[in-house]
Write a structure and sequence with these properties.
There is one protein chain. The protein has helices at about 45, 95-105, 125, 220-225, and strands at about 30-35, 50-55, 60-65, 90, 110-120, 145-150, 155-165, 180, 185-190, 195-200, 205-215. It has about 230 residues and is an alpha+beta fold. The protein has a single domain (about 25-225), classed as Jelly Rolls (Sandwich). The longest helix has 10 residues, at about 95-105. It is globular, with a radius of gyration of 17 Å. Fe (ii) ion binds near residues 56, 131, 133, 192 and 197.
C-alpha cells in the first residue's frame, strides 16, 4: 500500500478556519493560475545563490533571498517571533536583481522569498512529502491570510505540483486533485496552508523555482487580477 497521510500527520494540526481576511479569487479551489512570467530570470541569478540544506517536499535545497531579519536562514519566521511577512533582503538578493525587482513590483507585503532546488522524484516518492504549510502562525486575526506564489525558473513541462483540498477529516481528498504545470515561466498563487501540496518532478536535472509568501489584501488581489489569463472565446 502506497503512503497516504492519516490523522497522525503533523499537517492535520495546522489551523484551517480563521477570521483572517482572504482573497475571493482563492475561495473556490485555493489556487490561482497567472499568465506566464513576461520576463526571464537568467540562470546565473538562481544558480549562483547560496543554497542551504533544508528538506521540505523532497530532496530540496533553498536559497533565502528575503528572510525575517535579512540573515541567510531557512527557519520559519516564527522562530524569531514574527509572522511570515515584513521580510528583509539577504545578501543573496544582490545576486538576483530580477527576482528582487519582480517581488517588489507585486506591491504586496511579502515574507520569505527563496528559490528552491528540487531533485527529481516520482509521484509515489513525492506523496510521502505531501503536506500543508504553517504560513500564519502569529498572524493577527485582522491581518491578511498569508499565501504563497511561484515562478518556475527551469522548464519542466512533464512535472507538476500536486494539490489536494481537505476532506471532512482534514485529510487530502483525492477527488479534489489539481495538477499545476511547471513549464518555465509558469506562475501561480496557492493557499498552501489550506491545500496539501508537493511537486512531482520527473527528468534528470533539478527543478528551480521562486517561492514567495504574500499577505492577502488589495495589492495582491490587484496583482492577481492584472495577471489572470483571459479565457479563450468559445
Ligand atoms: Fe509547503
Amino acid at each position: 500500500m502506497s503512503f497516504w497521510p492519516n490523522a497522525d500527520h503533523w499537517s492535520v494540526k495546522i489551523q484551517l478556519a480563521s477570521p483572517h481576511p482572504r482573497l475571493e479569487v482563492l475561495a473556490d479551489t485555493g489556487v490561482a493560475m497567472l499568465i506566464d512570467a513576461p520576463f526571464d530570470v537568467p540562470p546565473c541569478e538562481y544558480e549562483a545563490l547560496e543554497y542551504m540544506d533544508w528538506k521540505s517536499g523532497g530532496d530540496t535545497n533553498f536559497a533565502p533571498i528575503a528572510t525575517a531579519d535579512g540573515e541567510l536562514d531557512c527557519r520559519g519566521f516564527w522562530d524569531k517571533g514574527k509572522t511570515d511577512k515584513d521580510a528583509e533582503w539577504t545578501s543573496n538578493a544582490q545576486i538576483a536583481p530580477s527576482i528582487k525587482t519582480y517581488v517588489d513590483g507585486v506591491g504586496a507585503n511579502f515574507g520569505r522569498v527563496r528559490t528552491i532546488k528540487l531533485e527529481p522524484q516520482d509521484r509515489e516518492a513525492a506523496i510521502r512529502s505531501l503536506h500543508r504549510d504553517d504560513n500564519n502562525r502569529f498572524n493577527p486575526d485582522d491581518e491578511g491570510w498569508v499565501v504563497r506564489s511561484w515562478v518556475e525558473l527551469t522548464d519542466n513541462p512533464d512535472s507538476y505540483m500536486l494539490l489536494f483540498d481537505n476532506d471532512e477529516d482534514g485529510l487530502p481528498d483525492p477527488a479534489t486533485e489539481i495538477r499545476v504545470p511547471l513549464h518555465k515561466g509558469a506562475r501561480f498563487v496557492v493557499d498552501t496552508q489550506r491545500l496539501w501540496h508537493v511537486v512531482v518532478h520527473t527528468g534528470d536535472a533539478p527543478r528551480y523555482a521562486l517561492i514567495t509568501s504574500f499577505e492577502s489584501g488589495p495589492a495582491l488581489d490587484q496583482f492577481i487580477t492584472a495577471n489572470t489569463p483571459v479565457p479563450a472565446d468559445t
